[in-house]
Amino acid sequence: MTEQTAIANYLKYTGKKSFNFTTALIDMDGVLFDSMKNHTRAWVKLMKKNGIKCTRDEFYMYEGMTGRDIIKMKFKNGAGKNVTDDEAQALYKVKTRYFTELGDVEVIEGTLGVLKALKEAGIKCVLVTGSGTQAMLDRIDTEYPEIFDEQRVTAADVKRGKPNPEPYLKAMAKVNVQPNECIVLENAPLGVQAGHTAGCFTIGVTTGPIPEKDMYKAGADIVYKDMATLLEAIPALQEAFKPQQ
Ligand code: CA
Known about the structure:
By secondary structure, the protein is of the alpha/beta class. It contains eleven helices and five strands; from the N terminus they run αβαααααβααβαβαβα. The site of calcium ion (CA) has 9 residues, from loops.
């Protein structure tokens, strides 16, 4: 898929006449931080302690959902148990403790370069995550200094996590932009689905084990194999976003 084709397709299915690139909506886990390995380990530990069968791989597929929704779904399907909001919150705290005990996670290689290039091109970068892991949120300004707009969307802002488009719709409302001004940067199918449903031009980067085809199936407009490849493609994207004569 070339950038030109991806954007032509986007304009066709959205019925928009043009794309006016002003804003990048950026996911956190798996995009800013290489945190999914530890998240999946922590989830498996929580489920095992509660007698619920699971595999690590399935949690890569749930990536983007709120912790509360994952807990409710797994306890219902795995143990026939309806978990209340309060119980889910308590269980999520335990999961967050397991995650923290696994130690600090690395940043994703190349993401800082991509975000710097976007900033230099005058693009506003907005964080959009369903995560409520404070330790990670606190690291953003250290690892990604002067990148993000003050306005951000986290677990505290959303009722319905990804794949619901709410997180991206909230972000666009906060910074007062339209879908055909925004790219979404995601690494997981449910996140891609949320960005796509919100009407944004959605870019998938396969930073984990999820294959490219799953990202396209979820609605990605274009998929890159890593951040270095996306960085190289930024000029081509900007060129393709320019109004056609
Ligand atoms: Ca993610």
